[in-house]
Write a structure and sequence with these properties.
The structure is a single chain. It is built from twelve helices and eight strands. Helix 2 packs across helix 3 and helix 4 packs antiparallel against helix 8 (about 180-190). It is about 45% helix and about 15% strand. The chain has a single domain, classed as Alpha/Beta hydrolase fold, catalytic domain (Rossmann fold, 3-Layer(aba) Sandwich). The structure holds D-malate. D-malate binds near residues 28, 190 and 217.
């Protein structure tokens, strides 16, 4: 683990693996960088892979009570500055994708490609905003554990859950390491995020969409409609897969991400 210490983020922790063109992997909610453990060995064969714990997750912290996607994107920029990186492919799982889109809006000139893994450029619907508000309230009233125990199994495809209960249980344990304050700050940050489909429309770099056919969080049709908006799109739909392909379907995800990253760096040479 590597660490950066700032006033806003008393500790920013990240993993740095491998050598070669840079790829940064952002985890989702409520997770930390370990989420990518099944993918990073393959990606780090040919690439430098940076995997942060986002502030409020794993070993990373933040001051104050609130977070925003823009602030989280800036925490990623701090890591890149420390590492002297000005060119990368950025991948984000779900909430990590919302952060990646905020990063692309502000620092798009640094990107050679953007991979949205079970994520969306749309804002929350009103129903979803209301659900998040209720979840935050429940957590603030001491309901962190029931929230996590109800949420995590819903991220997986039913058959996977039945066949691999230990994977689901591990994710529950990981999520329970995250403090109530951070869970609430992430929920509010997701609820307040704007739609960012313009980022998809206005970019010149390729965009990858990894889609789970049975994802309960990011509806299949909703993401499919976005997957043709940019100039250059890579779309993979995994059958019998929920929201967590890095755990449910890691071999296919690693192959698809490696292919995309290679393409992005070659495409950059002919752009
Ligand atoms: C995530 O996996 O990051 C969250 O489920 C995303 C969300 O709730 O929108």
């Amino acid at each position: 683990m590597q660490f950066i210490y700032t006033d806003e983020f008393p500790c920013l922790a990240y993993r740095k693996l491998g050598k070669g063109p840079v790829v940064v992997l952002l985890h989702g909610f409520p997770e930390d960088g370990n989420l990518w453990r099944n993918i990073w060995p393959a990606l780090s064969e040919d690439n430098t892979v940076i995997i942060p714990d986002l502030p409020g997750s794993g070993e990373s912290t933040f001051t104050g009570e609130t977070l925003s996607m823009e602030q989280l994107a800036n925490s990623v920029k701090l890591i890149l500055d420390k590492e002297g990186i000005d060119e990368l492919v950025l991948a984000g799982h779900s909430m990590g994708g919302y952060i990646a889109l905020a990063f692309a809006e502000r620092y798009g000139h640094m990107l050679n490609g953007l991979s949205l893994v079970h994520s969306t450029a749309l804002a929350d619907t009103n129903d979803k905003k209301e659900n998040r508000r209720r979840s935050a309230e429940l957590i603030q009233r001491g309901g962190r554990e029931p929230f996590v125990k109800q949420m995590i199994p819903n991220l997986f495809f039913d058959r996977f859950k039945q066949e691999h209960p230990e994977v689901v249980e591990k994710q529950v344990r990981e999520a329970l390491k995250i403090e109530a304050k951070s869970l609430v700050a992430f929920l509010d940050a997701m609820r307040n995020r704007p739609e960012r489909t313009n980022v998809l429309k206005n970019t010149s770099f390729p965009i990858q969409f990894i889609i789970g056919r049975n994802d309960n969080v990011i509806p299949f049709n909703n993401i499919l409609q976005q997957s043709h908006l940019s100039n250059s799109n890579f779309v993979s739909v995994y059958q019998s897969c929920g929201h967590m392909s890095m755990l449910e379907n890691p071999k296919a995800l690693a192959v698809d991400m490696k292919g995309f990253i290679n393409y992005c760096y070659q495409f950059e040479n002919i752009r």
